[in-house]
Amino acid sequence: MVQIAARTEVGLDHILKEIDDLGLNSYIEDLDTNGYTVIPPEIANPNDLAQRVLDASLNVAERRNGERPDLKDGNSRNPNSPVGDAQKAILLENQVFEEALMNPVLLAVSTYLCGYDVVLSSMGSQMKGPSDTRFLLHTDTRLPSPLPRLPLLCKCIYALTDFDRERGCTAFVPGSHKWDRNPKGSETLMHEGGSVETVPAEGAAGSLIIFHGSTWHGAYNRVVPGLRASLHLLMMRSMLRMTEDFYDRIPEEVLARNSARFAILTQQAIIPAYLDKEDQHAKVMRSLKYTDAFEKESGIALPVKR
């Protein structure tokens, strides 16, 4: 079983056993050492999940844009963006996106980083074509330096097509999550003039890339024809402000067909801002409904009764 520095995360023993059972120990060690890990398809891609997510993502893009992306020869609809054409807020567009969120491998690693009260902040797909637009190195924690050592969030990226340098894969500065700060000046530059070395996160379609919120990262320009497709999930501790609002917006039939943890992940147990004492009571009771269901299902007590 992986050895880690002393932490008092609720449910830590449980998640470490799950990591061991899933065969993820070496990937957790990579994550701790480098700030990111690339989990291969044979572990991260149950039941051909990535291909089904890719098909659904192409369908979403076609519905929203009026044309189906051409993975082999197409160009991005937004060539001036370093991430290409991004389809936001897609969780409820297809049931396979629920499955992508509930992938045991993704949940084990994101829980290791951010605890059992981790929630989904956003989910979106990207179709990235050839471009000369620079992508500056940055962190996703988005706080002033110094950054907290304990991760507040993490990013999970499904590679829906092959990821390598010429296809415009994600770039990382290994070990930068331990520096507890954001890049500045020439450190932000990915190409000439940059003062830090980046490495490509390469993997076959179906790989899952997960990284610490304070790891310096960017992306290489795609230099070959066609599109790089990916699905991005931003996961964060429930104390933070989420990018997408799922609270009270998930249909009951969606909640019913998933485990109790799905409700936790989709923000149903968070207590949002309230108007008065009566409103506060109603929202607290709603939160406890989902928290209690998760704790009964899993045997794991969440850090606080939100």
Q: Topology of this protein?
A:
Blueprint: H1 12-21, H2 25-34, E1 36-39, H3 41-44, H4 49-65, E2 85-88, H5 95-101, H6 104-114, E3 119-128, E4 153-159, E5 170-172, E6 199-200, E7 208-212, E8 217-219, E9 228-236, H7 252-256, H8 260-265, H9 277-298
Antiparallel strand pairs: 1-7, 2-3, 3-9, 4-7, 4-9, 5-6, 5-8
N-C termini distance: 32 Å
CATH topology label: Jelly Rolls
Supply the helix-strand structural class: alpha+beta
Q: Tally of extended strands?
A: 9
Mean pLDDT: 93
The H-level CATH homologous superfamily, spelled out, is q2cbj1_9rhob like domain
Rg over C-alpha atoms, rounded to the nearest angstrom: 19 Å
Brief account:
By secondary structure, the chain is α+β, with helices and mostly antiparallel strands.
